[in-house]
Amino acid sequence: MSSASPSLAALEANLTSTLVAKIRDVAIFMLSPDGRVATWNAGAQRAKGYTAEEIIGHSFECFYTEEDRQAGLPQQALAAAQSAGVFEITGWRVRKDGTRFWAHVVLDPLYDDDGVLIGFGKVTRDVTRTREARERERRAQDALLQARTEQSTHLLRLFEQAPGFVCFFRGPEHVYELQNDAHHRLAGYRDIIGKPVRAALPELAGQGFYELLDGVYASGKPYVGRGVPLTVHSTDGEPVASYIDFIYQPIFDENGQVLGIVSQGSDVTEQVINTRNLAAKQAELEQTIQARTAALEEARAQLARANALQLSNAFFHSLFEQAPGFICVLKGPEHVFELANEAYRKLTGERELIGRGVREALPDVDGQGFFELLDKVYQSGTPVVGQSVQLELQEEPGKIVTRFIDFIYQPILDAQGRSTGIFVQGSDVTKQKLATDEVQKYQKGLESLVEERTAELQNAQAALLHSQKLEAIGKLTGGVAHDFNNILQVIGGNLQLLRDAALREGGSVKQIDTASGAVERGAKLASQLLAFARRQPLQPVVINPARVVQQMEELLRRALGETVAVETIRGGGLWNTCVDPHQLENVILNLAINARDAMPSGGKLTIELGNAMLDDEYVANQHDLTPGQYVMIAVSDNGCGMSRDVLERACEPFFTTKPEGRGTGLGLSMAYGFVKQTGGHFKIYTEVGHGTTIKMYFPRSYKAEASEPVAKGGPVTGGNETILVVEDDLAVQATVVEMLRSLGYKVMKADHAAAALAILGSGVPIDLLFTDVVMPGELRSPELARQARLLHPDIEVLFTSGYTQNAIVHDGKLDVGVQLLSKPYARDQLARKLRQMLSREPLQATRTEAPAPLERVGATRRVLFVDDDPDLLATTCALLEMLNQRVDGTANAADALALLERNHYDVFITDYELPDMNGIELARRARQGRPDLKIVVATGYGHLDEAQALGAASLPKPFSPADLKRILA
């Protein structure tokens, strides 16, 4: 080992006295002229693994790889540095433990004052991560380019194989930019791409097509032509005459300006000739069948699917969606919907189609032969054309509609000629079919035609009555979500009442608790479905998400178990965001449980919170996302990861890779829907065998964080206030009334808003209005609440609903100041919500000034009340119940007599004027065989002699609660 020269030793002492020796991020050291290490700093020890004692005096060649040493690169580097004055390079270097790293190296020769070489200064930086990042970026760009190329190729194949002729004109000169094979054939296989239409097809001059194109481009309005004559030249120059149906559809750019025109159409020469022949034979009936002929000549929508490699995906989508005929693309032997345009979705009743097979998405079509035709086309590779084929669809529950369609099933072939899917196009020709059928009937003679018209009119009237009946039934049934939650409310409320009774009697509640658990699971399922549909009633407040996650740490550890380590990473200066904190907790918990299931042998869960800026470049491909500042919450695991197929369906409802019974498949879909409803962004990053990261971005809020919410726990207490329950579902109403009475409240009830308003206006003091949101009748619940506050300024209003797309929820969020208790709810939830609202200071301050409650009548009797006014009926029944009476009410005499036959009543009160019988006559029949029955006749005519002659009392209208009390006494 050679010793350093005196000059080098002096230089070493000088450098050691500086901060160079303490630098840790960069390796800075000296070499002797023959390449031996002379100095060593902390950065060199950290990068290469040698201590100063181990390396000083040894050749720097040990830092090079074996292949570089064999090639003589170390000595070449010294020579190059001495020759050029500096030597800089990047390459692999070796640490003490044999591992390699990518290094950036700068080598400078050092001279003394006499110009004598005294050594070399060497600076080495580890840039392995920078190199890996560049490699990842390159691979990602290559993958994106390949995906876009494949997508463009697929769209071009669909465009070329479209059975109708399609082309695209760009600009005011209508330059041919795209055409499919059918249009190329129509134009005589001439070279027209890139030419204006007037130059490409000069024989069209005088036929009106140039002028139509000019008009559509200038106005931005489409033009539809039916049976238009067309003359073009064939390949040998001979004129060929035909008739075509076509449409000129303007295509708009992002600024709303006309970009060009899509033309599509089909040859209808044979149809036009047949129609003219038929019209000639039926000239004497032209006035009678004029309307039918007009219907026959209506538009037959055709495919408007024009795509090209030069256009963007957004442009292809615009052409596809604006096509006037219905189009869809089916993939694979199961015929899974890959694309469906607006016309197809309207035909099938706006169903969820994409990603589902035809048998799953359209079960009502089974047995009509369409599925078998699809199988045949896919297996044979031969297209099938259908003309005026009958199709029956279920437009809504209980309503079947019949359509007639023209269609073509065109197989989509790959490069090897194998079927990969089916291209479906067609149009609804129901009107044309019906018109054609009618014309054929006219051929049998005018007399037969008149008879058929009469029969058709009768059938149409019967169909109209049937349709109106189905429509009325549909309005009565309401939304599925509302009914389902009402059912759960009835079951859950009665289970709670049964449990209370069982506890009082010392009975077992195990089976009741099991059933209650099932109700809770059903409610959770409905809530998750609403979340995916973005219709859950959110109650967002401004929060700092770090506080929410911190409060969940203990819950997460218990839920994940000891085999999963939980780490939380919080960025500094974390922004606030406005979300529903309870829903956010549910989302994080669901994602954590999914991560646990992806790590069956244990692992690590990381929750990261930070600020993020989503710029214009990032959101360019996100149609529902705006650039700006966001709060990012990422949930990561090092589990099994997802395959590409699983990732594509990860957020679909009910899709799960877990074994049967282990999951509902709603966790990710619920999280996705919640983030989107909040105005955020949802992104999944995953790699098979390495884990998954789910990132959620929520818009930043500049407001201060809201105060801590009131805890939902605590004892369940009741009260003695008066509550008016408004609920049209009588089963739900009975359950709620019983629950409220079990809590000690005085309860009045109404079946609809109008009856509730009559009770509110009767003068009875009401402390709280508890009303369903979805109610029958013209008076809507928000208006009922407004009028209630006018009549009772201090009244509290609590809404309840099992269906969130209604009058108090807008953009998925509750209106300001609205109190909502979502169905189904438990007795404890109802009790706490009522105490929260009724215990407010303003209400307590005015309680002493409220009118005295109505005093009950001492004896309890059974009363039958009859009145055809629904508001008066509901109000009076409620007042009688407040007077401690058992009440039945009906609106007509027939029902009243039936009730009198079945039940024993102490008091019978009837209106004087009823729709089906005079009140005196009804009272006379009620008296027969019941001499002890007390009869009261209510009337607006004052006291009636007829009533007195019958031994009945008169109750003049309008009557007050005191008048009722007097009658009962």
TrEMBL record:
The modification 4-aspartylphosphate is found at D772, D911. Residues 722-838, 862-969 form the Response regulatory domain. Residues 278-309 form a coiled coil. Residues 87-139, 226-280, 387-441 form the PAC domain. The keyword Coiled coil applies. It catalyses: ATP + protein L-histidine = ADP + protein N-phospho-L-histidine. Residues 479-702 form the Histidine kinase domain. Residues 28-70 form the PAS domain. Pfam families: HATPase_c (PF02518), PAS_4 (PF08448), PAS_9 (PF13426), Response_reg (PF00072). Keywords: Coiled coil, Phosphoprotein. Its EC number is 2.7.13.3. InterPro entries: CheY-like_superfamily, HATPase_C_sf, HATPase_dom, His_kinase_dom, HisK_dim/P_dom, HisK_dim/P_sf, PAC, PAS. PROSITE patterns: HIS_KIN (PS50109), PAC (PS50113), PAS (PS50112), RESPONSE_REGULATORY (PS50110). Gene3D superfamilies: 1.10.287.130, 3.40.50.2300, Histidine kinase-like ATPase, C-terminal domain, PAS domain. This is histidine kinase. It comes from Massilia suwonensis.
